[in-house]
Amino acid sequence: MNRRHFVTGAASLMLAGCVGTQQRAPLSPAQDPYYLTMYGPQPNEEFPVPAVDLNKVDPAYYRRVVDYPTPERAGTLVVDTPNRYLYLVMENGKALRYGCGIGRDGFSWGGRARIAYKKAWPTWTPPSEMVDRQPELEKFRNGMPPGLQNPLGARALYIFEGGRDTLYRVHGTLEEWSIGKAVSSGCVRLLNQDVIDLASRVPNDTPIVVLQA
Question: Keywords, A to Z (predicted)?
């Protein structure tokens, strides 16, 4: 091998080495396989749930474990209305945090209550006053069947104060864009994948605390 071929070959190897050690650009949260799996399709549900379009959700509202020092005991749900988060309190100052949407005028009820019971793919029955305001809902006065278009989504957790139904729910939604916003009729809405996860973790009679601004 003559000197010219040696130099050319060495230069090629050096260039190849440089290319091989280049750093890839970090993935955005919406491209992260961890979140793509977390919010992927759920075909085994009674009504198969499609994947979430994560580009329509602020990554700040993706489900994750966070530091959350609180006097509330583990297993309690805490709705942080101003910041649009729902926390499931864990041991050792941690919590599982979910992004949520709230009512247009804020979550108008606050205080301590409990999740009396849960339903998978619930029927939605609009309150009479809602039907009076929106006559197009008359056909659902006696209940809207479960399904992907049902406003309660894949799961509903029913909030009772003592023995009284507050009429507020923690429920699912297909409307990804609404997470982190005040748009619903007053309930706390989570992505369907998140409310399915939450409902699997909390039993009936789970305490819930709703914090106002």
Answer: Cell shape, Cell wall biogenesis/degradation, Glycosyltransferase, Hydrolase, Peptidoglycan synthesis, Transferase
Category of 147 on φ-ψ map: left (φ > 0), alpha (ψ -120 to 50) or beta: left
| CA dist., res. 6 & res. 85, Å (int) | 63
| Helix, strand, or coil (residue 17) | helix
Catalytic annotation on 18?
no
Q: Choosing from 5, 18, 100, 171, which is the catalytic residue?
A: 171
Burial class (CB in 10 A: 0-12, 13-18, 19+), 187: buried
Domain ranges of the chain: 42-211
Tell me: the pLDDT tens digits for 83-94? 999 999 999 999
User: CA 70, CA 92: separation in Å to the nearest integer?
Assistant: 10
pLDDT tens across 55-77, in order?
A: 999 999 999 999 999 999 999 99
DSSP-derived 3-state class of residue 23: coil
Tell me which fold the domain 42-211 belongs to.
L,D-transpeptidase catalytic domain-like (2.40.440)
Q: Which residue has the higher pLDDT, 9 or 191?
A: 191
